[in-house]
Amino acid sequence: MANKTRSNSAKGKGRDKDLEAFDNNKTDKTNARAEAVEGVICKILNRYSLPYRERLFFEQMIEDVKGYKVDGFTIDDFSLISKFNNSQKIADEARSILCHYFCQLCDIAEQEAKQKDEQEIIACYENFKRARGLLRLALPTNHYCGSIKELEEYKDYLGIKSDDESYLHTKDFERMELNAYFFEFLKRANNYFQSEPSIIHYLKKDELKQREKDKFRDNLRDLADFSSTRALDDIKNSTLTQNIYDYVMKNFADFLAEYKEPEINFRALIAKQ
Fold it and tell me: Which stretches are tagged as biased composition: Basic and acidic residues (predicted)?
């Protein structure tokens, strides 16, 4: 009986050692993962991978994430980038892809912030779109003429067929003339509005946002294929893409409102030369 008890005790101690080894191994992997993520972030902040302004905002984002101020966004999300560790070149390229995505989102958010000061022209454009549909309903039917040029060509054609200009005063011609001036106005108004940078961004902002998110994932997939990095499932399932997007779109405008360009000390720069 005593031998059996000692045997069970030995087995129990063996299981305890196995569990301890498993826990230690798990802890080591967790620590290694955290160190890899910290390495990615430090290199982004210390190697001037981002312009000065964007680097400050990236640093703010990291501080907020580490301080658990952003729902659903954890520092472990950046482990996706740390997976690209086959070589220094591959690691640098992965960080570069992340930085480019971050900068592009900042540009889009900055344009949206500017649009808040350009609401008047956006409202004019929306009013124009509503008005053109209503005005088209008021035009005479069966007398379509799409432009002033088309109207002039028709006038030349009628002039050949008639010696006098009485045709210019017929109701049919006047209706055609009304159509021509209306569609000429539409064309010029469209050209005016759609040449405005704020309107261009307003019309394409959703497309631009989705394009940048897709490009970020595609670039990482290409890098994974090229470097034989096992990260395709991680890229597909990672929340990093959306979390960075949400943070930038929500916070960059407020950051810009408080941001001040750094003063350059030219004397200090000259003294260093």
Answer: 13-25
